[in-house]
């Protein structure tokens, strides 16, 4: 074909040992995101030890996590609805990676948990605990384990993890 | 409607680290594509840029930064962005530049420099999650793929070995790709199954690597294409679709958004029976299971049955439905948006009969490429004809 | 253009998430256009940048609040006017009848605006100077005043005019009476650029609905037509681009005017909304757009040519100096304002009898990229 495939590969050592020129910069990029009406309420309710969803008045679908509008019917959402602390594992993973891709000695169990009382399959991501790896299963019934009330901050981490029922 | 052809493609080597800056990689890919098209930069009316998160290169508004390397100075220059889906989406944006009549010749230039970010590209991926619902859990991006893979395997009863076959096929196909980063002629299913567990069920050899690289395409109107090219490849259908941001609210076992994008593209291309009419396909394969998931989403296999096609050899380069003949992201590498070179670029080379040692037999006439992005929610699809 | 809607433009919107902000704008635009986003819209175009959002792959967060779930939707990493260009091209292919364009600013979520601007500079050269990013605006203004027939007082006059105009815009946050002397006396930050000449940040979301000619006539008896659109970029290198002249704007205007068949624009255009994120930019852009008879924008301004009651009102909305810097929504704001003018729906800042208007965008520091749209009633 006579095509020129170009590019000059480097090794990690080429960079670490200064064989090529580099410039370093740490961006100053900080934010304070407004949670808004629905997620704001969700976080307040977490601090009180409750899970809350929100209803679409068109067909009574209960969204979880709550939102201020129905993305299906494109109308403002209706009432907030308190939900149970229980749900079902829709899927999970056993992770040996931390957020920076460093290896963990002990894996964490993470899953998507759909919440009882919300529309079918509507859940959120959280940790799974008080369970052996071999017992993890899709479809497993679980229950929220909360932080002590005075340690809660209005964040998803106010729940420590979900444990088998 | 104006017909639009691809008349040239180019790409750099894909490697974990390249010396070249993002601009320089773009320049190299553009030169190669223009050379194949027999055109010069002065012949180009507009430039479309594609690149995934700015955090990789470490430049805010990185499209503006890359623009001189991509040939965009003093031209209409447009960056579009759909995460990993950009790999087949910026060519779609290039298509509408020409199909609308606004341009006759368009350069599409995709780039990713993932080696710039330290300590690891995952650092950028940490910020793709919802800042309030997900990020406080300090997630790793592999988690969501692991959870999607687990759901897919569980719902359809798929064995890991059947998924590992995709990694083996693609890494072996990549041996014939001059730009490949992770080709391996001797890899076996056992190698994949015995590789280190990252986030179960994802193991090290189920994943494509982070890479540096760039790729480019030259698109032209019918008049120009017939004048300058012996082997124009026509863009006959395009589609794209996004699902809700709330990825924890849907069943991850089937990519409905992809099925919709595929139907849009097949409809435009007047493809009635894709399984019979498509001769070669390049689905997006950042993980081995994704090739299977995407073959099903592209309606080229029934739900849960793409692993069977793989086991039976249907998706080999000399099979009924050659799939990722380039070697894919699994074998050639994964500089996110720049994988255009092994998706749209590869289908162009295959249909033009210019794929060299990777050429699938029987002079294929219809090809499909696809990419996938955002929070497991977006797909772009293009149907091309010789 | 068959529908417009906005939610804005205060300094901050702590009660809204960016999604809720956009939902409010979208509701209004769809009602205005008479379309149901779940059925009638063929494609959605969202304009944003990851580092404004604080979210890598910000495309992820775009669909729900626009009604774009399980529909064709994509992001343009650019200004809202670039989004309009993409919607225009999609419609011109013949495959799309109705396309929605959205852009927003949630600037109040950003705690380190300057840090992010600095992050847009070349990492190997300019960034290492460790200078405040607005140094580039100072350099440009200096070159512009040196080469063109304009004065520092002319730039101050732009601030006076736009803040005055903004008093008549129902959603502007920075309207007010300011004298040229007050602007001249404000702190010199990047000589000759002064504090009062830098537009402050504001929040808001803008949604526009575009339709093919046939569909537009079905939806409304008052469509506003895109007669021409263009966009262009000068070099990313500060040394090789023109600092004195906004060439990107001239090239974009060449493309848009050619498409529109528009000659002698200064005589024919009734109203212009141009980027004024720094006061000198308005004059620089008016000149590049051929709306100043060469390099005479300052002189025309002094003669009252660009005032609300002048021959060619420039930024009757109040522009970025009066309404606020809306980040990537800045260009979309200008397009929306021209649509309002041509519909005769601009309320207290209506330009009488306007039927032909020009909107122009610039992507801000450190870019030399912008777009131009020619709109007609």
Question: What distinguishing features does this structure have?
Answer:
heterotrimer; B: 386 residues; alpha/beta; 9-stranded mixed β-sheet; 11 strands; C: alpha/beta; Peroxisomal Thiolase, Chain A, domain 1; 2 domains; 5-stranded mixed β-sheet; 4-stranded mixed β-sheet; 14 helices
Describe the structure.
The complex is a heterotrimer of chains A (165), B (386) and C (377). Helices cover 10% and strands 35% of the residues of chain A. Chain A is mainly beta and 165 residues long. The longest helix of chain A is centred in the first third of the chain and has 12 residues. The radius of gyration of chain A is 22 Å and the shape is extended. The mean pLDDT of chain A is 95. Chain A has one domain. Chain A is built from two helices and ten strands, in the order ααββββββββββ. Chain A has a five-stranded antiparallel beta sheet with strand order 8-7-6-9-10, with no helix packed on it. Chain B is α/β, with parallel strands linked by helices. Chain B has one domain: Peroxisomal Thiolase, Chain A, domain 1 (3-Layer(aba) Sandwich). Chain B is 34% helix and 19% strand. In chain B, strands 3-2-4-7-1-8-11-10-9 form a nine-stranded mixed beta sheet. Chain B starts with a strand and ends with a strand. The mean pLDDT of chain B is 97. The relative contact order of chain C is 0.19. In chain C, 36% of the residues lie in helices and 17% in strands. Chain C is α/β, with parallel strands linked by helices. Chain C folds into two domains: 126 residues, Thiolase/Chalcone synthase (Peroxisomal Thiolase, Chain A, domain 1, 3-Layer(aba) Sandwich); 221 residues, Peroxisomal Thiolase, Chain A, domain 1 (3-Layer(aba) Sandwich). Chain C has 14 helices and eleven strands. In chain C, a hairpin with a 2-residue loop joins strand 5 and strand 6. In chain C, strands 1-7-4-2-3 form a five-stranded mixed beta sheet. Chains A and C meet through helix 2 of A and helix 1 and helix 4 of C. Strand 3 of chain B pairs antiparallel with strand 3 of chain C, so a sheet runs across the interface.
